[in-house]
């Protein structure tokens, strides 16, 4: 699951993910939550998922908008780990 995905694989994966798009060698999604505390709770939940997967997104918090960026730094691009964690993030933020 840590092999780099092809452009075609990435395009197919992005069709299945909510709101994600490619930014260079990463995938990214921004989500606006109802309040700042909701944004922090979402980040806390994603932090737990990331720790469990030993795969950590870059996270930017701006008031109630959170941007998640995923890439597998050790492989220099997008792998199945990124796609998998993106799906988990989607499930997490949709429940906030």
UniProtKB/TrEMBL annotation:
Stored InterPro entries:
PCD_sf (IPR036428), Pterin_deHydtase (IPR001533)
Provide the E.C. number(s) assigned to this enzyme.
4.2.1.96
* UniProt entry tagged with the keyword Lyase: yes
Q: Which GO terms describe its biological process?
A: tetrahydrobiopterin biosynthetic process
The family line of this record is: Belongs to the pterin-4-alpha-carbinolamine dehydratase family.
Q: Which PANTHER family match?
A: PTERIN-4-ALPHA-CARBINOLAMINE DEHYDRATASE
Q: What is this protein called?
A: Putative pterin-4-alpha-carbinolamine dehydratase
Q: Which organism is it from?
A: Saccharomonospora piscinae
Its lineage opens with: Bacteria, Bacillati, Actinomycetota, Actinomycetes, Pseudonocardiales
